[in-house]
Amino acid sequence: MNLYSTKLILEHASEWESEFREEWIQWKEGWEDLKQELIDEGIWEDILENWQQYAENVRQRWRLRP
């Protein structure tokens, strides 16, 4: 859940941080360009799978913390 919340914050940061709106827009456009390159190279699905495994590992560690 924490990773999902972070993703939403970053996706909508330009709405909340109007002072840095242009920087956030540039970041988001740059991310979309990189994502498209990774899709074109055929490795996007592997990245998603690795990300999901990482997120699950974080959730498990969070649950096991003292």
Which features would summarize this protein structure in a list?
mainly alpha, 66 residues, 4 helices, flat
SSE topology:
Elements: H1 2-11, H2 13-16, H3 21-40, H4 44-64
Mean pLDDT: 86
**Percent in helix:** over 70%
Number of helices: 4
Largest sheet: none
What sort of overall outline do the alpha carbons produce when their principal axes are compared?
A: flat
Overall description:
The chain has helices at residues 2-11, 13-16, 21-40, 44-64. The protein has 66 residues and is mostly helical. The two termini are 19 Å apart. 0% of the residues are buried.
Brief rundown of the structure:
This protein has helices spanning 2-11, 13-16, 21-40, 44-64. It has 66 residues and is an all-alpha fold.
